[in-house]
Design goal:
- The protein is an alpha+beta fold.
- Helix content is about 30%, strand content about 25%.
- The chain is built from four helices and eight strands; from the N terminus they run αβββββββαβαα.
- The strands form two sheets. A five-stranded antiparallel β-sheet has the order 1-2-3-6-7. Strands 4-5-8 form a three-stranded antiparallel β-sheet.
- The longest helix has 17 residues.
- The chain is globular and about 45 Å long.
- The protein starts with about 20 loop residues before the first helix and ends with a helix.
- It binds zinc ion.
- Zinc ion binds next to helix 2.
């Protein structure tokens, strides 16, 4: 498992709901948490690890020791957003970029947990920001699309990532658009 970087096509992909929760998914969740802690993140969406699922892992503390703060969201649905505030965000798929993004201050949402149960949440502040950032990923939206300011010139930073991706594509390290669509189709036939 690896974290894909912009402009990998899966970051623009609208993930389909996950139909079945089994050991494969539980293993994926564990691997996603491990990778998230390793890369010092507080949230990770499945399409960031090249899986087109509506699946998110979050730990707002970013601390692997605080297991009780871990949240797994499957097929999340935002029910209500309230208030507005700007705040700084980073994203594991956009290394070194820090952007100022306006988000709702409060977020009510619903998701299925690993046991298959529907859970209701009402998060505020930083936690609400994380869940909005991650659910955006599942809709194929990345944080720079909402950003109002950045730590460097946004266009230059994006261009740098695009050049790197093109190089990797040429070297066969990243999938072409056709290969990508083929792999997505296969996953969806199995799980969506
Ligand atoms: Zn992100």
């Amino acid at each position: 498992m690896r974290i894909v970087k912009y402009p990998h096509p899966i970051l623009r992909y609208k993930c389909k709901p996950l139909r079945k929760i089994d050991q494969t998914i539980r293993d994926i969740v564990q691997e996603m948490f491990d990778l998230m802690y390793e890369t010092q993140g507080v949230g990770l969406a499945a399409n960031q690890v090249d899986l087109p699922y509506q699946l998110i892992v979050i730990n707002p503390t970013g601390d692997a020791q605080q297991k009780d703060k871990e949240v797994v969201l499957i097929n999340p649905i935002i029910l209500k957003l309230r208030g507005n505030e700007e705040g700084e965000e980073g994203c594991l798929s956009f290394p070194d970029m820090r952007l100022i993004v306006p988000r709702a201050r409060e977020c009510k949402f619903q998701a299925i947990d690993l046991k298959g149960q529907v859970v209701n949440y009402h998060w505020k502040g930083f936690d609400a920001r994380i869940v909005q950032h991650e659910t955006d990923h599942l809709s194929g939206v990345s944080f720079f699309q909402h950003a109002v300011a950045s730590n460097g010139d946004l266009e230059t930073q994006l261009l740098k990532l695009q050049v790197k991706f093109k190089e990797d594509l040429k070297n066969g390290l990243e999938p072409t658009e056709e290969q990508f669509l083929e792999s997505v189709k296969k996953w969806e036939e199995e799980r969506a």
